[in-house]
Amino acid sequence: MNPTGSSICDRRQFAQKLASAAAASMALALLSGCASRPLAPDSMAEGILWQIDDKTLDLHGNWDKMGVHTLLIQWSALNGVSFIEGGPWPLAERLPDWQAIARQPWAKEVILGLAGHSDENAARADFPGLVEVSERLARLPTPLNVVGWYFPVEIDSSWQDARRLGPLLSRLPRPLWLSLYDSANVGPETLARWLDEWLPPDVGIFFQDGVGVHARNAAVARQHADVLIRCLGQHRVRMIAEAFRPRPGGGFRPATAAELREQLQMYAGLRVYLFDGPHYLSEQLVNELTLAL
After folding, report:
1. Segment 85-90 long-range contacts (CB within 8 Å, at least 24 positions apart)
2. What is residue 239's predicted lDDT score, i.e. its pLDDT?
3. Which one, 118, 149, 208, 271, has least CB within 10 Å?
4. In DSSP terms, which residues pair with 110 in a beta bridge?
5. How far apart are CA 95 and CA 102, in angstroms?
């Protein structure tokens, strides 16, 4: 879980690595169309995400049946309110039972999200302030087995000010993670070049697959992940599998067991985190999914 080590591709080898990664991904896409990958029920995912809100403070689930042992908490302070005692923002009226969460088999390890805003534009506009609050949050004790930290300002190549974020990330502890998406579908090679220009080499990324919002299918998302892994290093890339689908008329619904099974089979061999546990992965759905494999 430690995103440390060498930088992205050495610049003299960058183009060569991208070409090699693209060719390998194309081959994988052809192979994946011929046969599905075997997937054991207890190795479908490494982690789940938890987007804390008032409806999910009583966190519970059976995600360990899927092999989940790591909890990625999207934020521990949101919109000026803290969910951890001692933080720089006022304490929320209701708090999660951190002691109980620390005892769960799906939270043996925790990547702790820091300070954020629920509105993406607001978060990007305030990222220097969020870094400052996050720096203080990261020092607070919790009963959780924290193995890394997550800075909850999502990035994509359309964000022109993202380069200004790079130097500020030095103030946050390691291992440190960001999440990355490709809403403009610029492709993994372009994303890798963009990250190479500004992202510190000891910061890892969670790549949002885009399947839940119908930005791409799982096969294309797998190609993205493979290229990013070859250019950034396997230790710096995780896959976020969106466990939801558009609902007719607006909003989102949980993915069905059949939809998730096909999606996760495509990601076999990757370190997968499901978004998100309490909102979209009910105990009944987990039971259906594990029994179906």
Report:
1. 85/140, 86/140, 87/133, 87/136, 87/137, 87/140, 88/133, 88/136, 88/137, 89/115, 89/133
2. 98
3. 118
4. 71, 146
5. 14
Is 151 in contact with 96 (CB distance < 8 Å)?
no
Number of CB atoms found within 10 A of residue 185's CB: 11
| d(C-alpha 42, C-alpha 40), whole Å | 5
- Identity of residue 64: D
Name the packing angle between helices 257-266 and 218-232 (round to 10°).
30
- CA-nearest of 86, 48, 91 to 67 is 48
The type of residue at 175 is P
Among candidate residues 185, 184, 178, 187, the one with its CA nearest the CA of residue 155: 178
User: Residue 94 carries which side chain, given as an amino acid letter?
Assistant: R
Distance CA 228, CA 204 (A): 11
Say which residue the tokens 């305030």 belong to: 126
Could you state, in chain order, the average pLDDT of each consecutive group of 10 residues for the chain (293 residues)? 40 51 43 47 92 95 97 98 96 97 98 98 98 98 98 96 97 98 94 95 98 97 97 96 97 97 96 98 96 71
| Amino acid, single-letter form, for residue 264 | L
The torsion defined by the Cα of 155, 119, 168 and 203, in degrees rounded to 10, comes to -40
Query: Could you give the 3-state DSSP secondary structure of residue 233?
Result: coil
Element (H, E) at 98: helix 98-102
Neighbouring-strand partners of residue 48:
71, 274
Take residue 249 and report the two structure tokens written for it: 């008329």
Q: Give the torsion through C-alpha atoms of 248, 60, 153, 272, to 10 deg.
A: -80
Residue 54: name the closest of 12, 93, 103, 101 by CA: 93
Tell me what pLDDT residue 77 has: 98
